[in-house]
Each structure stands twice: as structure tokens, then as C-alpha cells.
Design goal:
Mean pLDDT: 79
Low-confidence stretches: 1-26, 396-416
Distance between the termini: 199 Å
Strand content: 35-45%
Shape: elongated
CATH architecture of the largest domain: Sandwich
Helix content: 10-25%
Largest sheet: 7 strands, mixed
CATH topology of the largest domain: Immunoglobulin-like
């Protein structure tokens, strides 16, 4: 066992020594590391490319460093966008003042610190490329590093919306690039409902995660049916620069199935029923049944409507509407009562009503005649009584006048007839 450990240790040591011999006795070789290997930049802002590099001792001192645009893995010196001449103490001095190098700056001009990070200002859509870093040292010790960094242009935030269901809390995210440390972004959320009402959402429902290259804002939302087809958006502000994104919400929901229509119908009229339910996604077409069977009313249904003309007594009963929503069965029912107007038909009822009106009118006329005749009779009676009394008064044969003779104290009674002549 001990011998085996000795053999293993010797083997490992031999491999380590061999590796040092193959790599230049353990000295640093050409190597570069980008962190991150992709940079997301916003037009009009800046982009930070962070990197570190190493080079062999034989290449010292470094003469110049360059940044080159690469296409399909080909990095040619004629597409150079930056060149810095190394002066004393490994300090870099820009060599070409009138080129694009004016908008590119190395963060660390001392190459002994092995920092090759740069900031590119005033990013445009044309800057979406791969870039390589090149070092030219003494004699033939020159190298364009094979690993490259990529700049991606993003002119709006990226929104991620999971499937939404009514009453179930969901998390919506809005990510914005953070390419330039000088201008950290600020993210705000808003919602515009179907009634065109815009609501700015409060920070209480929002969490923010930041990193060197990304801002991620999460909106915690419990959707309702009112938010279906609403618009949700996030605005990202970088100082005076703002980028925005918006999406239409799709909320899965279903409301109560309803049957619309009157539950009382006159015999001979038309029965109209409507089966409706609001849902997303839409429910299936309805299936109607009457008193437990669909055969009797199959010819009276179309889509969500049921219509029966010339309703009769046998159409009274229970009508059921049934729909399917995402493997869930929905149903509603209504009890229809058929009301009979009369044993007679409508025409007979109208005729009877007309006859009643005529009879009533006739009764009114007879009463008026009887009243008129009764008035005449009473007037005649009264007139006869008055006339009789008058004649009775005039037919009195005698009118008594008493005269007193003061001389003889004899009372004389004189009688007159009807014409006023004195009777003897």
C-alpha cells in the first residue's frame, strides 16, 4: 500500500514537471479573460468591456495595444478602432487622435497591471460586433488574442411574462442592461386597462436585483379577469435616456355560465333563450337539453341561442345549457312556464271583448232613456199637482166679507160669486 502511494506521488510530480517544461517553465503565456464575454449596450450610452490579459516575458516591453473589429472569427488589423502607443513606464498614449479612438478609453493605462478594460462611448447600432484585443511586443512577440468579446445592442427592456391565471399570483420581470457605470438605470412599471386607465404600480409589489451588467425588476401581480387584454409596461431611465417595453396580458379565467331570457311565456308566443359565459380561452359551443334530453329541441338551437315559435303547453319544463371550458363542465338551467290566455282563441277573445263593450254601451243607452222618461213622468206629475191645486183655489164659490154697522151693531155678511157679483 505504501509503495503504491509512492508510485502515485512520483507520477503526479512527473506530470507537473512535464507541464512546466511544455508551457515555458511556468511563465505566463498569451491569455485574455473577458468578464462577461457578452456586453449588452443601449444606443446613445456607453459600454464597459472588462478584461484582464497576460503575455510572455519575452514580449516585454510592450510597444502598443489595439482593439480590432472581428467578423465571422476573422480579426483584421485594417478594422482597428483603437491603438494606444506605450510610452515610458508602460503608460499608454493614444496614437491616432482623429479616429474612433476619441470615444474609446482604456481604464488602466499601466499595462503592468494586466488590465485591458475599456469604455466605448456614444454606442450606435453599428457597434454590434465582436472585438479582439491585440498586443505587440518586442521583436516578433505579437499576438491577437483569439477569445473575443461581443457587444449586443438593445434598444428596449426585455420583459418576461409567465402564463397568467385569475387569482393566482405571478411574477413578471423586466430586465435592462447596465453597460455603463456612470448612468445606473431606474425601472418603473405601469398598467393600462381596457378602459384606457393607466396606473403606475407602487414599489411595494416590486423587487430589484442589480449586477455589474444587468438590472432585473420583478413585479408581483395577482391577475383578475379585468386585466385580460390590458397592457403592462416598464420604462427604464438612464438619466435623460429612456427605453420602454410593453406587452398585452392574457389572463386565463372563466365566469359563471348564465341563461338569459324570460321564464314565463304566453301560449302561442316565441320562446327565446341565450346561453352565455365570459372566459379566456373561449368555451365550447353550448349543448341544450329539455327535461333531460336534447332530441326534442335539437332543431330549435343555433350556437348559444334557443328559439321555439308558437309555444305550446308541452314546451313547459326545464331547459339546461352545458359548455366545456378547459376540460371543466359548466352548466345552467331555467324552468319555463307556459301561460294559457283563455280557452278561447285570441280572435274569440277580441270578439267577446267587443261584444261586451257593445252590451255595456247598450246598457248605458237604455239607462239614459229610462232616466229621461222618468224625468218626464215626474215633471208631469208635479205639473198636474200644481194645476190641480190652482184650479181648486179658483173654484171656491164663496168669499166671506164681514162688515160691522156701528149704528145698529148688526153684522152683515156679504157673499160674492166667482165673477165678483154680489149674491143676494
Amino acid at each position: 500500500m505504501f509503495k503504491m502511494q509512492i508510485i502515485s506521488s512520483c507520477t503526479i510530480l512527473s506530470l507537473f514537471v512535464l507541464n512546466m517544461l511544455c508551457t515555458g517553465n511556468g511563465k505566463e503565456d498569451w491569455n485574455i479573460t473577458f468578464n462577461p464575454p457578452e456586453i449588452t449596450a443601449v444606443p446613445g450610452l456607453c459600454a464597459l468591456i472588462s478584461c484582464t490579459f497576460t503575455y510572455p516575458e519575452e514580449a516585454k516591453p510592450i510597444d502598443n495595444v489595439q482593439w480590432i473589429v472581428c467578423t465571422n472569427g476573422q480579426c483584421k488589423k485594417d478594422r482597428r478602432i483603437f491603438k494606444g502607443k506605450v510610452i515610458t513606464q508602460n503608460k499608454i498614449k493614444l496614437e491616432e487622435k482623429k479616429t474612433e479612438t476619441e470615444r474609446i478609453k482604456m481604464l488602466e493605462p499601466d499595462l503592468t497591471k494586466n488590465n485591458c478594460s475599456i469604455i466605448m462611448k456614444d454606442i450606435t447600432a453599428e457597434d454590434e460586433n465582436e472585438y479582439a484585443f491585440r498586443v505587440e511586443g518586442q521583436l516578433k512577440h505579437k499576438s491577437t488574442y483569439k477569445p473575443t468579446v461581443k457587444i449586443i445592442i438593445q434598444d428596449e427592456p426585455i420583459m418576461d411574462i409567465p402564463p397568467l391565471s385569475e387569482g393566482v399570483e405571478a411574477s413578471l420581470t423586466c430586465s435592462a442592461p447596465f453597460p455603463c457605470p456612470e448612468t445606473p438605470p431606474e425601472i418603473t412599471w405601469w398598467i393600462k386597462t381596457r378602459g384606457e386607465h393607466i396606473t403606475n404600480l407602487k414599489d411595494v409589489n416590486i423587487t430589484l436585483i442589480t449586477s455589474r451588467s444587468l438590472y432585473l425588476s420583478t413585479l408581483h401581480l395577482t391577475p383578475t379577469s379585468k386585466l385580460h387584454n390590458a397592457t403592462v409596461g416598464c420604462d427604464v431611465s438612464y438619466g435623460n435616456k429612456t427605453i420602454s417595453a410593453s406587452r398585452t396580458l392574457e389572463v386565463t379565467y372563466v365566469q359563471t355560465l348564465r341563461i338569459l331570457g324570460d321564464d314565463k311565456v304566453m301560449e302561442g308566443d316565441t320562446l327565446r333563450l341565450n346561453c352565455t359565459v365570459e372566459s379566456h380561452p373561449p368555451s365550447s359551443d353550448p349543448v341544450w337539453s329539455f327535461n333531460g334530453t336534447a332530441d326534442k329541441i335539437r332543431n330549435h338551437t343555433s350556437a348559444e341561442n334557443l328559439m321555439i315559435t308558437n309555444v305550446r303547453k308541452e314546451h313547459a319544463g326545464i331547459y339546461v345549457c352545458e359548455m366545456t371550458y378547459m376540460n371543466e363542465t359548466l352548466n345552467a338551467s331555467i324552468t319555463i312556464n307556459v301561460i294559457r290566455e283563455n280557452l278561447l282563441g285570441k280572435d274569440d277573445l277580441l270578439n267577446s271583448s267587443k261584444k261586451c263593450k257593445e252590451a255595456f254601451q247598450m246598457q248605458v243607452d237604455i239607462r239614459m232613456i229610462i232616466g229621461f222618461l222618468f224625468g218626464i213622468s215626474v215633471s208631469a206629475v208635479i205639473f198636474s199637482v200644481v194645476l190641480c191645486c190652482h184650479e181648486s183655489w179658483q173654484s171656491r164659490d164663496e168669499t166671506q166679507v164681514v162688515a160691522t154697522n156701528t149704528d145698529t151693531e148688526v153684522i152683515l155678511e156679504v157673499f160674492y160669486d166667482q165673477q165678483g157679483h154680489q149674491k143676494k
